[in-house]
Amino acid sequence: MPKQTLAALPDKFVIHSLPVHAEIPSQVLNASLYFIGKTHDELSIVVPQTVQVDSEECDEDWRVLEVLGPLELSMVGIMAQIGNVLAAAKVSIFIVSTFETDFFLVKQKDLNTAASALEQDGYKVIL
Is the separation of the CB atoms in 64 and 103 below 8 Å? Predict the structure, then answer.
């Protein structure tokens, strides 16, 4: 199977941590791209840094590498393989997924290192 193509989205993103019962701010739902995850302990929101969210904690300066798809749900090992390449390059990741594709968030300062490692492993990366 040929390796995937990943495209860097132009915006910087921020990961917010909110209390588990917090309301999702309307500006999040109006953002061009967002991800929301909720567990028994917390609510996490990923949005472009231009979207203001009052949160308990946040981590800024993430860039998104979108695995261009669509990827079928029956495909096995895509995230693991890409994750292994980035781990070997000592690049921290935060992953979110949709029905059709995966998104690897890497710190802005690590974007070129991530792209280089992926390209050396046979992936195409569009910056």
Answer: yes
In this prediction, residue 2 has a pLDDT band, given cuts at 50, 70 and 90, of low
Helix axes 111-120, 78-88, angle to 10 degrees: 110
Instruction: Answer yes or no: pTM beyond 0.85.
Output: yes
Q: Are 2 and 25 in contact, with CB atoms under 8 Å apart?
A: no
Cα separations in angstroms, 66 against 24, 35, 40, 43, 82? 24, 13, 28, 23, 12
Q: How far apart are CA 50 and CA 78, in angstroms?
A: 30
Tokens of 48: 């472009």
The 3 state secondary structure assigned to the chain is CCCCEEEEEEEEEEEEEECCCCCCCHHHHCCCCCEEEECCCCEEEEEECCCCCCCCEEEEEEEEEEECCCCCCCCCCHHHHHHHHHHHCCCCCEEEECCCCEEEEEEHHHHHHHHHHHHHCCCEEEC
Question: Phi and psi (nearest 5°) for 114?
Answer: -65, -45
